[in-house]
Amino acid sequence: MAVLTLLARRLAAALVLLGVLSALTFGLLAASPGGPEQVLLGSRPSTAETRAAIRAEYHLDDPFPVRYARWLGDAVRGDFGVSIYSREPVTDVIADRMPVTASLAGYALLLTVAVGVPLGLVAAMRRGGALDQGITLAALVTLAIPPFALSILLLYGFAVALGWFPVFGAGETPLDRIVHLTLPAIALAGAQTAMVVRQMRAAALDLAGQDFLTFARARGLPRRRIWLGYALRNAALPVLTVGGLLLAANLTGSLFVEQAFGLHGLGALLIGAIGQKDIPVVQALVLLGGAIVVAVNLLIDLAYLAVDPRVRHGAVTS
Amino acid sequence: MRGVLVTVLALAAVAAVAGSWLAPYDPAAQDLALGAAGPSAAHWLGTDDLGRDVLSRLLAGAGSALFWPVLVALGTTALSTSLGLLAGYRLGWVDALMMRIIDLAIAMPGMLVLIVVVGVLGGGYGWAVLAMAVLFTPGDIRVVRSLTLAQRGLAYAEAARTLGLRPARVMFRHLLPNLAPTVVANALLSFVAALVSLAGLSFLGIGLPAGTPDWGLMVEENRGLLDLNPWAALAPVILITLVATAATLLGDRLFETLSEGGAR
Amino acid sequence: GSAQRGGGAGRDTLVWASGAAPNSLDIAHGFNGASTTIQMAVLDTMVTLDDRGVPAPALAASWTQPDPASYEFTLREGVKFTDGSALTADDAAYSLRRHLDPAVASQAASYFTTVKKVEAVGADKVRVTLNRPNPAFLAVAAVAWQVVPRKLAEAHPKDLGSPEVGTIGTGPFKVVKFSLTSGTVLERNDAYWGPKPALRRIEIKSITDAETLRMAVRSGEVDGTDGLNARDARKWTGLPGVTTFFYPSNNIAYLTMAVGAGPLKDVHVRWAIAHAVDRAALTNLMTAGHGGPATAMLPRPQLTAVYGDAVPAFPDQPLDLAAAKAELAKSAYPDGFTLSVPYATGGDSATVMQAVAADLAKIGIKIVLEPNPGDKYMARMMAHDRLGIQYVSLTYGTPDPIEVLPDMISRGAAEPQGFNFSGYGSADLDARLDTFASATGEARKTQLTGLLTEIAEQVPYVPLFYTDNAVALSDRFTATFGTWRFNYLTLVRPASGS
Amino acid sequence: MTLLDVGGLTVTGRHLIVDGVDLNVSRGETVGLVGESGSGKSLTARAVAGLLPKGLTATGSVTLSGRELLGARERLLRSVRGSQVALLMQDPFAMLNPLRTAGAHVAESLPRLPRAARRAEVLRRLAEVGIADPSVAGRHPFQLSGGMRQRVALAAALARDPELLIADEPTTALDATTQHEILMLLRGVQRARGMGVLLITHDLRVAFELCDRVSVMYAGRIVESGPGSGVAGAPAHPYTSGLLAALPSVTVTLPRLEAVPGSVPHAEDVTDVCAFAARCGQAEPECGQARPPLRELSPGRRTACLYEVRPRPRTAPPALAPDAAPAGGTLLRVEELRKEYGGHVALGGVSLDVGAGESVGVVGESGSGKTTLARCVLGLATPDGGRVELAGLDVTPGARAARREGAHRLVQCVFQDPSTSLNPALTVGAMLAEAAAQGRAEGRPSVAELLDLVGLPTAYASRRPRALSGGERQRVAIARALAVRPALLICDEPTASLDVSVQAHVLELLRTIRRELGTALLFITHDLAVVRQIADRTMVLFRGEVVESGETARVLDAPAHDYTRRLLASVPPTP
Ligand SMILES: Nc1ncnc2c1ncn2[C@@H]1O[C@H](COP(=O)(O)OP(=O)(O)OP(=O)(O)O)[C@@H](O)[C@H]1O
Ligand SMILES: Nc1ncnc2c1ncn2[C@@H]1O[C@H](COP(=O)(O)OP(=O)(O)OP(=O)(O)O)[C@@H](O)[C@H]1O
Ligand SMILES: [Mg+2]
Ligand SMILES: [Mg+2]
Q1: pTM of the entire predicted model
Q2: Residues 65-124, chain A: which have Cβ within 8 Å of C?
Q3: Which of A246, B156, C449, D340 has its C-alpha lying 20 to 30 A from D544's C-alpha?
Q4: Within the 97-156 window of chain B, which residues sit less than 8 Å (CB to CB) from chain A?
């Protein structure tokens, strides 16, 4: 029941969000100087007839609301137009790029969780010790390095100087892809891992002061149960929220990383599309970004629902 | 540790204020014949491809590298604190409306929108800085609001209301000081995020005019020189990282100190 | 050490990287370096240029010029498209005609504005009728008259050459794969009518980040690239196992000064600026010795095409700050002025304008740099919006000055969307351009000298430098490049030693 | 046979906290450890279970069934915890994992069992603590009341049949009736199992009612121990005697509540002297020279006082007629006040009157709507229906904002929780000055006058709340409320979280103020003994309804309503 109302509420909110987002970007792009003519014509002299033909084809002379309504009508039917730059349907362009970004984001998330959670817990356990200080400081520094700089450093260090990893590309076979995406994923995961470490540490410390943990120990529960059933599970809640936000942030983070590692993912696509005034692509990407954030938030809510009975029974809202 | 922290930030502040005077060379002075060269007695951190002194540019750039993030942090903090206090204290329709808008804003792919806005509209830093402040604010409003909500239910706040004090006085004199640890820590986090993000924008070629001695821009402009003079790109990266680390650490420390100080 | 070397493939497979992603295999929508490089390997043009830039037979085995304004081409016999169908005169004629159709919105349309009619006359003959004589027509055709099957082009008026449709040609290579993300793969066309290409397979990637590209070449993951800039020569020539080839390009970099209004309207100001800019240093910075200072407002190959080795000396404004200040003193702005100058972020214009700004500061002219995203800058330039001092670098396709000069000094090109960013022009100049267009022999030389001298005296433009083209190749490959050889993928061959 | 033997236990953190505690508990015996807040009771308990918070260390000896636990390896401790010694903590709301069901808490504590048997065993264990409804096993803590949670926690603590149960204030967070039930349950289980129980409490009455032996703790050490009845009847330490005197009685109205002056020192500061000397009425120079040993008076009876304790004069009943009858007319009139929170009725039509200068008590268990009533009168909550009239002025909140203008000069409030009642960011002086400025200009009291009124030194003006003890904070809160010279002071359980001695102080202060300033009181409490001391009239609130009201003596001595009788029955007898 709670699930259904939640889903319904989220869906409505998502529609509003996507509507606002699309109108906003559409308006922005329409208002910005220069139009698709320039892209279509290249940086060469053009004839007046050609320009007129293009304006007609792309309905550039229609008033803004009409253009937006047309776009919206098509979008609702799943037609996001044709890329001005490559003349492919936008959906194809995006579908083509999606696997790279998705694997990159997934890989990075995996690294984040696999490294961040244990490190955070260890730091909390050894609170104040050398290990804790080391981990905390390392997290701080990682958090402070701009992601693009981290990309460059990794690229130089591990791909060029040491030659352990390839310099660019996403690889073709699955194994190849893992090898190719390792450095980008590390670059992407760096700051997030640091966030998770901090969050996990704080959550675990907070937890350590809780009565129910002391009570669990007082009952002589085995260590494994205390760690898994109590520490990890209860600390998971705050970490989950951060994790979700990070997943959404992957989207933007991948922009820098893809750029630096020469990956043809969605981030590089966006940068390119902005530079080329490829409005249909930019528009679709922004919407996709919005949809992903909405979806991630929904996932977090569902996860809360699964983990926290208080939310499940509507006692509190997350 | 604390000494290092304070030293780093103090040096950064000095560089930000007096960097242009301290610079051994005119940061814009070119020596095209010299081009990019490694560190030497004349140029401690070498030169970039236009033969400009890297150290001088770092010093001169400290101002812009730090000023804008500070501006973002101040703007964000002022805005989010007052709006968050208002929503959390007033509740009612003000709160409901604000929360709806914030829900919406938070669900936006923020950085993406920022890049599209600044990238497409072009224009300079002003837009980037403004957009960033707008981006950071909703999350902070939410935090301040929830803290306000918690504080307003406490006995001292109810006592203040019972005394018939004006709402503004209750909010700013009674509640605000008790939110200080979070507000201060958040302000520093905003500063760090802005510092790193603005550098990122420069990296994408969005923002400041070419040749401006700015740390983020220097990384972008000089990263092709890693073989000729690595310091031209590495030094600004190191500086950004150092300042950001110190600021985060300071935020953590301040949060602890302030919340201990206010502990009941 | 390196993770991978040359993609690990055989020695007749080349892994090539371009600095930008190709977007279309149809020149009508992909008239840009990365795309045209592939088009040239896959599609044949009717005519081509020989090493000296003189039109030579390609798909057209020969041609005649029945009158100054018309051409009649005779097709080579037995040429087949890679899908097996035979090349017809109809295909050839349609391939040119489509550029004239506004509905196609061809990027090459402006190349063919003088073409009135294209028709197939008989099975192997194509006749092109022009509005007026155009000595540059054949050179232009060598670049843009790429021949595709009419059937295919007609079936895809909107998306010929897109990744979904691709293209079919008669060229030395055929397209096996064309993707904007994972790259392009070409394979040898074994039925090619000309000399058999040395490479069996070419894999083309795109790496937009110049540094990443360089590291990819350095690590051996990529065998060759044209995505480098002569000014970065120092960084490239040091790479082990890589040879960088430099060869003259048909290009010129210059400053334009909008003469319509403001300080730049004053010829003394323009002289002062020309005297103040340290062109030698700038040339050195931007070309690193692989190019040279420009002495006239034409690409060097075009000067050579007209004058041979006897290029006359044009009036010049050498670096001379005293002279610059003296000129400025004569102007209405003896104490200098401030000018806001837009530039495109992330390109050469940023570097050049910084150097120019530093030079001009010495005589009291303050340049405020105004960054713009590339597309916005382009849009603003093309709209002739607030023009001032701008850096322009252009590369041309043909050896004929008539491709360049009208763009620079005709009044028609001074309108928005034209390339005359200085706005310099007059009725008299337009008339002289017209006579020059159809002049031949010594008259042609004299007229050109007259035009270039006027530009040099009035200084609407300050010619800066020429840059060589650069190609980096792994030592496993070699090639002989030339200014007029646009199909350089076909020039690359395995090095004999490796 | 001795089950637990604690000898010379000290706990040190940054300072010395527990200083040489000796304790022993035998099988089948309940031992009480009483003492004021901060005296080190909890840390003693946690030291015994080997669960001291990080940063604290214990020395001395703790033996359980002859096995030394102090300094033992964590491995050994883990095997001992749960199966030999179990710990039950104070706050039932924080003790259970919010993410696990009640049944899971019990089940995970049980020794290994097959699945089906385990479920049956869980139900059996829950039934043992009085939870007969099997569906409770499937509920999560947030779905259970405080009492239920404490029962579940008890079942979980007992799941491995420990020989010793340490219960650290297991009922403090519960309301009177539930408290009583849980204590009775504890006693029942203890008897049935023959367990040893170490019961930690600050409530002397609970200790004396429930325990075989009682140890009184002060500033980290034991100052007196002996059989419950013996200590209650003839305290052998002036501190114990002081505590007993401060205890309000539910049966009589005492003329004067005797508070022990001063506050508990840090253990660190009094290692070599009698810890109580500074506050002791019969201290001699000798008390400040050496630390008095815990000497044996008679077998099983020990005291740390060098002298015999002088008996305190205790006024015999009937003590005092209620204070002079109220002058003037009605000050506060509440009519049919109603308030719902999302369908839950907090107030279901409450009416009451308070005359000028009168003191009215409102009693009721937790959740009965006492605070809601106060908040509605104060304008902090908007009622759904009914009227509030102050001195003839309609001040019903929400009706028209302007009407409440000036209401703050008529009514002020003292809240329950001393830890949040003062703004931690402001000094006492700033707080009081600000409050005084809200009152009428003529006769505006100065900060010094206000501090003097509540018996605090003027120097306190520059202190911040964190430098004040709980009782001092409540006194500042009272001063702040009085700063505007209100006609009515609402006190919402102002002493509920204070120690008896401090409570006596605050209650006495309120009585004085009422007498001297003529301020009317609306005193909210769940403690019948307190209401006996302070209220002329009392009304009993039950689930948002007034079930009984009248003269305090009448209500308490001859309760008419069943609920009132239940409340009275759950109050432990005052020794
Ligand atoms: N983790 C800790 N670190 C340092 N000091 C502590 C810690 N926990 C408690 N203390 C201090 O030890 C002293 C005794 O604390 P303890 O909790 O044992 O008191 P208590 O008698 O149980 O009081 P209460 O009735 O308030 O629970 C107090 O002064 C307290 O401030
Ligand atoms: N702000 C609120 N929102 C929802 N429910 C509330 C709120 N305030 C009180 N209640 C509910 O109203 C009922 C009465 O609460 P109230 O605080 O008045 O009780 P009380 O008698 O003061 O109890 P206690 O002795 O625990 O302080 C309770 O069931 C409580 O849960
Ligand atoms: Mg305690
Ligand atoms: Mg209450």
Answers
A1: 0.82
A2: 82, 85-88, 92-93, 96-97, 100
A3: B156
A4: 103-104, 107-113, 115-117, 119-122
Which chain A residues are within 8 Å of C32, Cβ to Cβ? 42
pLDDT at position A15 is 86
Claim to verify: residue D51 and residue D72 sit in the same structural domain: yes
Residue A297, token pair as written in the block: 């938030």
Closest CA to D173 of D201, D152, D195: D201
Q: Please tell me the predicted confidence (pLDDT) of residue C1.
A: 30
Host domain of residue D107: 99-159
Identify all chain D residues contacting A315, using CB atoms and an 8 Å cutoff: 142-143
Give me the number of domains chain D comprises.
4
Minimal CA separation from C301 to chain A, in Å: 20
End position of a domain, from candidates D112, D134, D159: D159
Q: Which residues contact C252 (CB under 8 A, 6 or more apart)?
A: C294, C297, C298, C299, C300, C393, C394, C463, C464, C465, C466
| Closest partner CB to B210 (pick from C211, C350, C373) | C350
Give the C-alpha separation, A106 to C249, whole Å. 46
Instruction: Give yes or no: residues D168 and D267 share one domain.
Output: yes
Establish if D416 belongs to a structural domain.
no
- Which of the residues A39, A86, A97, A180 would you substitute to probe the C interface, choosing the one with the greatest number of C C-beta atoms within 10 Å? A86
Q: Is D316 a domain residue?
A: no
- By the 10 Å C-beta count (0-12 exposed, 13-18 middle, 19+ buried), C314 is classed as middle
Which of the ligands is closest to the CA of residue D37?
1
Relative to beta strand C224-225, strand C13-18 is: parallel
Distance, in angstroms, between D342 CA and closest chain B CA? 16
Tens-place pLDDT, residues D42-92: 999 999 988 888 889 999 999 998 889 888 888 888 888 888 999 998 888
CATH number at residue D64: 3.40.50.300
Is residue D312 a part of any domain in this protein? no
Residues D172 and D260 placed together within one structural domain of the fold: yes
Quick one: which of B180, B148, B240, B192 has its CA closest to A195? B192
**Same-domain pairing of D397 and D530:** yes
D447 with D298, same domain: the answer is no
Inter-residue contact C290 to C467 (CB < 8 Å): yes
Is the domain of D284 the same as that of D170?
yes
Q: For residue D492, what is the nearest residue in chain B, using CA coordinates?
A: B155
The answer to whether the Cβ–Cβ distance between A144 and B248 falls below 8 Å is yes
Q: Which residues have CB atoms below 5 A from the ion given as ligand 3?
A: D 42
Q: Which of D268, D303, D338 is the last residue of a domain?
A: D303
- Atom of ligand 1 at shortest distance to CA of D202? 25
CA distance A91 to A197: 37
Please judge whether C374 and A164 are an interchain contact, meaning their C-beta atoms are less than 8 angstroms apart.
no
Q: Which of A264-268, C113-117, C181-185, D428-432 has the highest mean pLDDT?
A: D428-432
Confidence (pLDDT) at A105: 87
User: For strand C60-67 and strand C173-179, is the pairing parallel, antiparallel, or unpaired?
Assistant: unpaired
Structure tokens at A247: 């997943």
What are the structural domains of chain A?
2-76 (no CATH), 91-317 (1.10.3720.10)
User: From first to last of its 318 residues, what are the pLDDT tens digits of chain A?
Assistant: 567 887 888 788 888 888 888 888 888 777 776 667 766 776 666 777 777 887 887 787 888 888 889 888 998 888 888 888 888 889 999 998 888 888 888 899 889 889 998 898 889 888 888 999 999 989 988 888 888 888 888 888 888 788 788 877 777 778 888 888 889 999 989 888 988 898 888 888 888 778 888 899 888 888 888 887 888 888 887 777 777 777 777 766 788 888 888 888 888 888 888 777 788 898 898 888 888 888 888 888 888 888 877 777 765 544
Residue D212: what pLDDT? 92
Across the interface, do A86 and C180 touch by the CB < 8 Å criterion?
A: yes
Both D40 and D111 in one domain: the answer is: no
Ligand 1 atom closest to Cα of residue D44: 18
Are D476 and D468 in contact by the 8 Å Cβ rule? The answer is yes
Nearest ligand, CA D36:
1
Same-domain check for residues D226 and D298: yes
The amino acid at C340? S
